[in-house]
Amino acid sequence: MKRAIRASALNATKTRRHEENIFCSLLRDFAASWQKSELIGAALIAATVSSSAASPSRVMILDGESGGPYHRWQVVTPVLKKMLVETGLFTVDVVTAPPPGADFSAFKPAFTQYAAVVLNYDAPDARWPESVKTAFEQYVQNGGGVVVVHAADNAFPGWTAYNEMIGVGGWRNRNESAGPRWFVQDGKLISDSSPGPAGSHGTRLPFVVTVQDANHPITRGLPKTWMHQGDELYASLRGPGRNMTVLATAHSDPANRGTGRDEPQLIVVQYGRGRVFHTTLGHDVNGVSSVDFVVTLQRGTEWAATGAVTQKVPATFPTADTVSYRADLAAMDPIYKNGLNPLDAPRR
Ligand code: ZN
């Protein structure tokens, strides 16, 4: 009986060899190894199984609310999904939370089924039932990945664990009780505990992003500086900053209502066994179409999900003095037809 099964497998393999079907490589390896010895076969099967462990990671994009109509999560989420799916590294489900005032009793995202949760979501403290907050904390504590996009760092100002995950946040009445402001000076992370509100930005203009930690998997191989497409440059964010590494900063220009400091833009945080990648970039489709946003979100999500980054840096990555954006992504915004840069009018 065992011999018959072997013969059958070999016959099937011979047929498929003629087809030269690349997707049958597992079966080919399987049968070819049996021609040598079962021991080698077992080794090859093990190798195949370990390479299939690199099959796509399940990623959840969570959206459903923002602090105002200026954050059009309904338009941004499909763009985030497209840039993640196109890597071939992720399968992506979108989970949309109920709107404000709706019944949340059936809102129970299956966090543990995902390698990473991408938050394109900004809601006040009272929104989620305690059971959902606890489930999310346990998910991250036990090794779940989190990606925080732009105004997701405005969410939940009073949820202690969430603020530890994001490292720093802004708005929604955050002040010195949220923690100090954090910035980088001469390559060192500095905290400023002086009182005041958290969160500011100027007019949306292109700006330079500077890598502060080139040895992290997310930033390894990126240029030292690059131009980011017109976007809000978040500044004066406050938070516990615990287990936080600032990967890249941008200079907040006082001429554009800035702080004069090098403000964190790409951040990683370790929370329990969970990895958090936090990008302050990405106000709108225009911002997330910037090639550097795309690349850092793709790499940051892979790192949050797996702890490693396997993606190469594309040749289209922006340079120190030239922005680079994805027209195919920008065109997913209905207002793109009105022009690339529906940015704030310059102030005089
Ligand atoms: Zn914004």
Describe this structure in words.
By secondary structure, the protein is of the alpha/beta class. It has two domains: 51 residues, no CATH class; 280 residues, Rossmann fold. It has nine helices and eleven strands. The strands form two sheets. Strands 2-1-3-4-11-10-9-7-8 form a nine-stranded mixed β-sheet, with helices on both faces. Strands 5-6 form a two-stranded antiparallel ribbon. Helix 1 crosses helix 2 and helix 2 runs antiparallel to helix 3. The protein is globular, with a radius of gyration of 23 Å. Zinc ion binds next to loops.
Can you give me a brief rundown of this structure?
With 348 residues, the protein is an alpha/beta fold.
Q: How is this fold's topology laid out?
A:
Elements: H1 2-19, H2 25-36, H3 38-52, E1 57-63, H4 73-85, E2 90-96, E3 116-119, H5 130-141, E4 145-149, H6 160-166, E5 181-185, E6 188-192, E7 205-211, E8 225-231, E9 244-251, E10 262-271, E11 274-279, H7 285-288, H8 291-306, H9 327-330
Parallel strand pairs: 1-2, 1-3, 3-4, 4-11
Antiparallel strand pairs: 5-6, 7-8, 7-9, 9-10, 10-11
Helix pairs in contact: 1-2, 2-3
Bound molecules: zinc ion.
The site of zinc ion has 5 residues, from loops.
